[in-house]
Structures are given as structure tokens and as C-alpha cells.
Amino acid sequence: MSIHVSLDVIALIAAIVGLGVAAQFLAAKYRVPSVLFLILAGVAIGPEGLGLITSGTFGDSLSTIVGVSVAIIVFEGTFHLEYRAIREASKAVDRMITIGAGIAFVGTALTVRLLLGASWDIAFLIGALLIATGPTVVAPILAVVPVREEVATTLEVEGIVNDVTAAVLAIVLFKAMTARDLAPRGYVWLFVQRLALGVLVGLVVAGVVWYLLTEVELPAEAAPQTARLLALAGAVIAFAAADSVFSEAGIVAAATAGFVLGNLDLPHQKGILRFKRDITSLVLSFVFITLAALLEFEELFALGITGLVVVTVLMVVIRPLAVFVSTAGAGFTTNERLFMSFVGPRGIIPASVATLFAVRLQTEAPPTDPAGANILLGTVFLAILVTVVIEAGFARRIAGILGVTMSGQ
């Protein structure tokens, strides 16, 4: 029996990998972000399609698999970020991850509260989760839409930083919902505590990897492969070490390690980056297909037209407001700011964390809140589905209409 189950899981993983590669191939051929095809593939093999994947397919290990996968994705995203580019775009970046994030957080929470009638707890939890645009969805868009470096860097940094801070903020808020004996000052401390631990662990791991690559002599024929494997190990170890203390600190550690290593003068750096991109493409395929397969349309339909109105407000009111306020006087053209307003898809972090919260609200959290769990999961997944399909699917066309693509590309 166990052998039969194992073979079924192996066949399923093989199918997911195959669909992921097919999605990457179609994305390259038609110059459309791969995320679009990955979500469609996931829905096709999930409960709403062929039923090959259900919520019980991977059991309790799914959250761990997703966590490690996101760590690898975030590590790769920060690894290729140059400090110089961030410094040049720092004015807009600083505002996007502070003022822009604040507008998204409060605006989303108010919208959910007023239109869906959710409790303030659930509304602010959804607001925190939907701050994150995320490198997992932004990077595939920028891969096929060549825009000015300052525009791309601002969107990438916003996605990476907000992915991390949104996850930590959401978990702190969730703790506030389920453990009301903390004072407000305690929530701030929880937030700072997790960020600080993640940064510290990331710095330590980056230092160890740097030392091994630069100070330990290796045979010339083995050095390139060893460098690639050490970088991959660094991402996973940074995540695991911080995650073992605070579950939400692991992504911070992976992001920190990636950024530090990417800005150091490492041997075989280009080879490491190419290897990480290949691994990330594979991991991205697995995570998006698997999570999309867990979508249940019943939860989406339960929100009705009001749910679509909420997502529309997020896309055409809150996102543009956040972008235009954050980029005022930062050297972007109006059309570039319009394009940045259009590119705000939500991705892996909101999906995985919302799923975890929904399960806890339904089964563990005192008091249980199944209605809130349904609003939480339905709103987050609807926002992901609509923003990815529309924004990833039409990003290149919108960029062309606005004239923000680099000439000759």
C-alpha cells in the first residue's frame, strides 16, 4: 500500500515538473510571464479540474515544502539585486516599502471591512497579506517586459522587501488575534524581534559561505560546482536556522543572505546566478502549480460580485494611489508610474500564509472563526488569481501602449 502511495506521489511530482517546464516553454515562446500558465496548470489538475491534487495530497509537509521553496526563490531574487541600483532608486524604493505599503495595508483593510463586512481582525490580516506583490510574480513579468532599470529595480525591491515584511506583519497580527494578552507595545517587539533575528542569521550564513568560497582552496575542476551548491545550501540553511526559532523569520534570513552574497565579489558568481535561476524556475513551477491546485472555486464564488469589486478597488484605486504618492518627484515619467501601478500582482507569500491562517482559524485558534477563515482565504486567492491573470497576461501589451519598454527589445 505504501509503495503504491509513494509511486502515486512520484508520478504526481513528475507531472508537476513536466507541467512547469511546459509553462516555462510557452512563456518563452509567447513572451508572457510563466506564472499565468503555472496557475492555469494548477487549476487544471486540482479539485476543480482533474482532481489529481487535493488538500491532503502532501499532508502536513506542504507548508514546509512551500516555506523552503519560497526561501530559495527570495534568495535568488535578492542575489541579483545590486546595491548600486537600489541606492540610485532609493528615494522611490524607500517610499514604496513604507508609505506605499502603509497605503496598501490601510486601504485594503478598510475596503474589506466596508464591502465584505469582515471583522477588523480579519480585515487587517487581509490588508497585511495583500501588501506583498512578491518577486515570484514580479520577476516573470519583468523577464518578458524590458523596462528602464530604475523602474525594474523599484518593482523588484518593493516585491522582495514587502514579501518579507508583509509575512512578518501578518503573523504578528494573527498572534494578536489569538493571544489577546499582549499589550500593543508587545506586537511591535514581536515584529522587530523576528526581523532582527532573520537579518542576523542571514548575515552569519552569508559570512560563512563567503569565507568558504574565497579562503578555502578547492581543485579547479570542482570549484564552480561547489560554489553553486554552497549558495543553494546557504539559502536553505539560513531559512532553516531562523525558522527553527521563529517560523516567520526564515524568509528574512534567506533574503538577507542572498542580498549580501550577491553584492560581494564571489568567485564563479555568474555561474551561481545562472544555477539559482534554473533552480528557482523549477521550484516556482512546483509551488505555484501546487497552490493553484488547492484553489476551491466555492470559496471564491461565496464572495460574489462584491469580492470582484474589492479586487478591482485594490487594482485601480489603492495600487495607483500608493505608486503615485511614493514616486512623486523620483524621476519617473507619468507613463512609467502608470505601468508600475498596473504591475502589482500578488503571489506565493499571501497564498501560503493565508492557507495556514485559514486552517488555524477553523481548527485551532480560540475562538474559532470559520466565517472569517472563508473571507480570508477567498479574498486573498481571488486577489491573486485576478491580479496574476490580468496583470501578468497583459503586462507586455500595456507596457507597449504606454511606451515604457526599452527600444530594440
Offer a quick outline of the entry:
One of its GO terms (molecular function) is antiporter activity. The chain is mainly α and 409 residues long.
Order of helices and strands: HHHHHHHHHHHHHHHHH
Strand content: under 5%
Give the % helix. over 70%
Distance between the termini: 54 Å
Q: C-alpha Rg, in Å? A: 21 Å
* Total number of distinct structural domains: 1
Looking at the overall shape, the CATH architecture is: Up-down Bundle
Report mean pLDDT, rounded to a whole number. 82
> Biggest sheet, open or closed, and with what strands and sense?
none
Tertiary shape: globular
Question: How many strands appear in the DSSP assignment?
Answer: 0
| CATH class placement | Mainly Alpha
Keywords: Antiport, Cell membrane, Ion transport, Membrane, Transmembrane, Transmembrane helix, Transport
Membrane topology: Multi-pass membrane protein
GO cellular component, one term: plasma membrane
GO molecular function: antiporter activity
Commentary on this structure:
Its main location: membrane. Residues 14-387 form the Cation/H+ exchanger transmembrane domain. Keywords: Antiport, Cell membrane, Ion transport, Membrane, Transmembrane, Transmembrane helix, Transport. This is TrkA-N domain protein. With 409 residues, this protein is mainly alpha-helical. It has one domain (2-402): Up-down Bundle (Na+/H+ antiporter like fold), CATH 1.20.1530. The chain is 78% helix and 0% strand. It is built from 17 helices and no strands. The chain has helices at 2-30, 34-45, 61-79, 83-88, 90-116, 120-129, 135-144, 149-178, 184-215, 223-243, 250-262, 269-293, 297-301, 304-326, 334-342, 348-363, 370-402. Helix 1 crosses helix 12 (269-293). The termini are far apart.
